[in-house]
What does this fold into?
Amino acid sequence: MNKLRKIFILSLCIFSPFLNANNSVASEASHVIGGFAIGSIATGLTDYYFPEYRSERGWIGFWTNTAIAAIMFGIEMAQDSSDTSGELMDFGFSVLGGAFGAYTTDHFILTPVTTEAPDGSPRYGVQVTHKF
It folds into this structure.
């Protein structure tokens, strides 16, 4: 753990001079990646710590990311309202990344989902499709 912390701090020191806020493709991609990470992590934590909400874990991951992004960009807009369109664009790309991260984690990493039947027993399902 200590080694990972040193690598993280060193990478911040090396790459921080190259980071700047603008409306370029790289800047918006960073918001997508950040939203993806938050949505994925929130979905995974919901699955692990709150198993009773497994059927809604994707939505919980998405809304957690959206709430964090709304608070974060709301604070930035309150501090400097001269770039409202840029902040809204950052918010939109962050929400887009969060949606993609929550969906990907829910449907491809944490599958299958077990639900509870009305009698209290666990219910498992397999879906088979065939085009006619």
